[in-house]
Amino acid sequence: MGLSPSCGSISEGGSVLRFSLLGSGSSGNAALVVSPRTKVLIDNGLSFRQLEARVSAIGSSLEGLDAVFVTHEHGDHVHGLGTLARRLDVPVFMTEETFRSLPPGVGKLPRIETFEAGDTVRVADLEVSSFSIAHDAADPVSFTIACDGAKLGLAIDVGHVSQLVRNRLSRCHALVLESNYCPDMLMQGSYPPQVQQRIRGRLGHMSNYDMTSLLNTLLHDALKLVVLVHISERNNHPDLVRRLAQQVLAKRPAMLHLATQNEPTKLFEVCP
Question: For the stretch 61-78, what's the b/e string if a residue is b when 16 or more beta carbons lie within 10 angstroms of its beta carbon?
Fold first, then answer.
């Protein structure tokens, strides 16, 4: 497997947690998480062909995929879920309400495993812990993923950052955070008022300033990597996102990376 570590070389004989954002944005979201014994996906809004191509591009494959975890039922997170689950006969984990709310186009899922928000699911050497988030979906959740002392936290499609979100994301060694829109660009843009209200509402998305406020509360010396995701092509700009995040991370050891819609990130390494 071709790797591009983000935090140094692997210690001999040690376990390590790796992940890649395979796609991030309104056209399709998916993340691959890999440990020495386990391989899981978080969401799949990509076609099977695109998913295969992007996993291959980072030096991995879908062979041996152990599970798919679903955050919520919106199409950009589940568009390719049915085809993937049927072709690979892989178990799909989601809350009961998310399962009931899946779009008809997803089709039959051969192996469904439901959990309640707040539950932790163990898949071999991975601990996948769910927590409730604020978004306009039936029962949306996000996850932290832990393996052998390394902890990865994700906060994507979050309209309001609660104390629960802050608590669950604390002490992570790597963070994946939404930085969806610039409020000024959204207000001055082409979206109609009702769409603007949905985006900036408590059940919408995180702005750049929501991201920086959350990131500031999550800083600690063992945080090694921050990946910013779901950056709007119409209502945001990568340079602005990067500059605001760098201001928060000044004099901190964490690396910063911005994910895009059309290409996977490299396969990052999460170090405890």
Answer: ebeebbbbbbbbbbbbbb
The pTM for the full model equals: 0.94
**Count of domains for the chain:** 1
Closest CA to 259 of 80, 16, 31: 31
Q: Domain of 215?
A: 17-270
Both tokens assigned to 226: 């921050």
- The CATH number covering residue 92 comes to 3.60.15.10
Q: What is the dihedral of CA 124, 130, 135, 139, to 10 degrees?
A: 90
pLDDT tens-digit map of 157-212: 999 999 999 999 999 999 999 999 999 999 999 999 999 999 999 999 999 999 99
Q: Which of 23, 40, 32 shows the shortest CA–CA distance to 3?
A: 32
Nearest CA to 125 among 147, 152, 149, 153?
Answer: 147
Distance, in Å, from the CA atom of 142 to the CA atom of 140, rounded to the nearest integer, reads: 7
